[in-house]
Amino acid sequence: MSSAIVFTEYGGPEVLRLVDAEPPAPAAGQVRIRVHAAGLQPADSLLRSGRFRTFMPARFPQRVGNELAGVVEAVGPDVDGWQIGAAVLGPAAAPGAHAEYALADAAQLVAKPADLPWSQAGALSASGQTAATCLFDLGIGEGGGNGEGVGKNIGEGDTVLIHGAAGGVGSMAVQIAAARGARVIGTASERNHEFLRDLGAVPVVYGPGLAERVRQALGAAAGSTPVDAAFDTAGTDDALSASVELVADRSRIGTVAAAADVERYGIRRLSTRRSAEQLRSLVALTEAGRLKVSVQQTFTLEQAVEAYKELDGGHVRGKLVFVMP
Ligand SMILES: NC(=O)c1ccc[n+]([C@@H]2O[C@H](COP(=O)([O-])OP(=O)(O)OC[C@H]3O[C@@H](n4cnc5c(N)ncnc54)[C@H](OP(=O)(O)O)[C@@H]3O)[C@@H](O)[C@H]2O)c1
């Protein structure tokens, strides 16, 4: 038997339970992983709370967790390239990474570098692939998975605004955009400004008056549009209205957090795409020292309720991660 976090009814973090469960059996194309670390993301809470129920209904007892790092422990039929004992990272095949054992699609996994700490490896794939995909779709960088995107790559001296820059997606987007040569403005509360500077962004406080503060930070004239692209992970009206004031081309404004507002603002609804190719390029950035997964706090599986309460508070700096002994 092994431990897994599950919920058997929709609700707040308190509906989560750590239960004994059979390790899942890998189907064709899958491997079973002994999980060493697994990041949390808001989507895990949306599944648990029932807000995802129309397009992704829970199947009780429902497991949670979308990203992991661990060691291949069993290999299903038709799997090429992975053998028992391989250290890997990537997405879980279905929610279930917050457990001692989880399944993953072999084709989505990449090798974990030996010197990348488990806690960082287990928290890279979901937020990292969202950041990379969305920046690509806004014309920044390479490796957008299936190759879609507007194809207007940003270069040295171009400027990108990232809303929610201290969060899981935002903190990786800041670093990826900076690594691609962009000048990055990031929004966060004051307490995260030193953190943003360390990541490579010019920090600006969010809230009313944001557009003017961004212009001041850039030394730009009142009423000007000095930002080339804006990526919103915060989903607030302040973020979206500042974006349309600051960016002339609305096809280069996108959100992952305010799907209901995209038509009103005439901006793009962005979403993640996963590919091992894209994930490998993120791992390469970590190896080059250009991308660091900032881990605010680690938790054991026994601390699931505490971990999810922290996530649901909406002010995580970087990532929260379950680590398994
Ligand atoms: N569609 C997709 O494919 C997809 C994929 C991944 C994520 N998402 C969505 O993207 C959003 C962000 O995800 P995440 O993992 O980055 O979340 P997260 O890590 O929980 O974000 C927390 C961050 O949000 C910041 N924040 C809170 N209120 C803010 C505001 N009004 N303005 C700017 N920043 C604010 C906080 O900074 P302070 O503490 O400084 O306030 C904190 O650092 C979520 O809505 C998530 O569901 C969508």
TrEMBL record:
Q: Which SMART domains match?
A: PKS_ER
What Pfam families does the record point to?
ADH_N, ADH_zinc_N_2
* CDD domains xrefs: MDR_like_2 (cd05289)
**SUPFAM superfamilies this protein is in?**
GroES-like, NAD(P)-binding Rossmann-fold domains
Q: Which domain of life is it from?
A: Bacteria
Keyword terms, alphabetized: NADP
Span of domain Enoyl reductase (ER): 11-322
UniProt name for this protein: NADP-dependent oxidoreductase
Could you tell me which species this protein originates from?
Answer: Catenulispora yoronensis
* Taxonomic lineage from the root: Bacteria, Bacillati, Actinomycetota, Actinomycetes, Catenulisporales
